[in-house]
Amino acid sequence: MLALVIFLLSNRLPVPVGFWPFNMFISLPFGAVVLAALLLGFFVGLLAHLPKRLGAERRAKRAEKRVAELEGKLAAPASNLR
């Protein structure tokens, strides 16, 4: 966090940022532009990974239910022997 604050404070010079389809430019501090690009990349990566993560969680829950079911079937014959 300290390194981020130092980076932002060290790079305060404005740079022009263009928005392609509108042919519009805004001057923003370089540190803010880098931080915004970092956050945007993080959230795009998170959104790209989310469907795989949710699918893996569903498969894991199904597998846990199946294991519990099979363990129950194994325990039933053992209880009949007693």
Fold topology:
Layout: H1 2-10, E1 14-19, E2 24-29, H2 30-80
Helix pairs in contact: 1-2
Q: What descriptors fit this protein?
A:
82 residues; alpha+beta; single chain; 2 helices; 15% strand; two-stranded antiparallel sheet
Shape: elongated
Low-confidence runs of at least 5 consecutive residues: none
Continuous helix count: 2
Distance between the termini: 63 Å
Sketch the major β-sheet: 2 strands, antiparallel
How would you classify the helix and strand content by structural class?
A: alpha+beta
Beta-strand content bin: 5-15%
User: How many structural domains can be distinguished in the coordinates?
Assistant: 1
**Strand order in the largest sheet:** 1-2
Total E-strand runs = 2
Return the string of H and E elements: HEEH
Explain this structure.
By secondary structure, the protein is an alpha+beta fold. It has one domain (about 1-80). The chain is built from 2 helices and 2 strands; from the N terminus they run αββα. It has a two-stranded antiparallel sheet with strand order 1-2. Strand 1 and strand 2 form a beta hairpin. Helix 1 packs antiparallel against helix 2. The radius of gyration is 27 Å and the shape is elongated. The relative contact order is 0.08. The mean pLDDT is about 90.
